[in-house]
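Format notes (please read before filing issues)

Several people have asked whether sequences and structure tokens are stored in separate files. They are not. Every record keeps both together, in the order shown below: the sequence lines, then the token lines. Line labels are part of the format and must not be stripped during preprocessing.
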Amino acid sequence: MQSKNRLILSLIINLGLLSAGATMVLSGLVIQFNYHMGHHGDVDKTLSVFGMTYTGWSDIHLISIVMVSFLAAIHIILHLKWYKAIMQKRLFNKNNLMIVLMTVFIAVAITGYISLFVRLSGGSEAIRKSFIEIHDKIALVLFIYLIIHVAKKLGWYISSLKKLLKYQNITGSD
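Then the structure lines:
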């Protein structure tokens, strides 16, 4: 049985991923559909969507990406035994959804971070926009896989919360 502290940590990390991930997806979709698509590289940074301009949405997207990256790293560390078992026992077919999700997540992260580094280093705008285009397309695939993953894990969230409530009722402690 999972220890109480590990369960609390896993729940906090997963809820953080859920929250930051939802923010990342929402801001990414707003940016993609309102500023990138159909504008041929000419972004109207003054256009307001839900009360925010491109700069505001970009800031929110960047902050949520950094949070998701940080929380995902912790999530992977918490599940390192699982990843090792998959590799050692060659259980790829039974876990293909997770492997594809991880691969697509890494591809989205790399293309997004490369476009950011190109911008920060003063690199070519054409190269940056090329990476953004790739990032945008792969991110749509990631969005679908994230929905499937979260839907499959809803039971875990519910049972984890029940375990914590049960433990608190039995011990009367925080």
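For reference, the curators noted about this record: Residues 4-171 form a domain with the Fumarate Reductase Cytochrome B subunit fold (CATH 1.20.950). The helical segments are 4-36, 54-78, 80-89, 96-120, 125-171.
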